[in-house]
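Reopening this ticket.

The earlier resolution said the output was attached, but the attachment link was broken on my side. Pasting everything inline this time so it's all in one place.
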Amino acid sequence: MITKLTLAIGALLTLTGVIAYVATGGVSLTAMIPSAVGVLLLAAGWLARNPRLHRHAIHGALAVALLGALGSVMNVAKVGQLLTGTAERPGAIWASLVMFVALVVYLALGVRSFIAARRARQA
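Inline output:
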């Protein structure tokens, strides 16, 4: 399940970055940051299909997710500006918010998956 989730979140973030880049008129490559994280997750998900690499690939994907979530916090903290209409770059805030929520959910489910796998091995 975690492999399919990794691929789904990777696809979502890749699409988010492309949409953000197009929506901002292609002015800034930083709009593609969600896509960069998404492509890394897609690569890890693809590698995780191999049973020998699964554990390492998912660990790598979760590390990327943690770094991506932490990197998006600065823009997520500006959600209040988005709601009041005073945001300088609303597209960046939306893209960061999507990335943050998707990655935090992925991290929670990934950790839960590791806990379940450890319990299954011990049983």
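Reporter confirms the inline version is readable. The mean pLDDT is 94. The radius of gyration is 16 Å.
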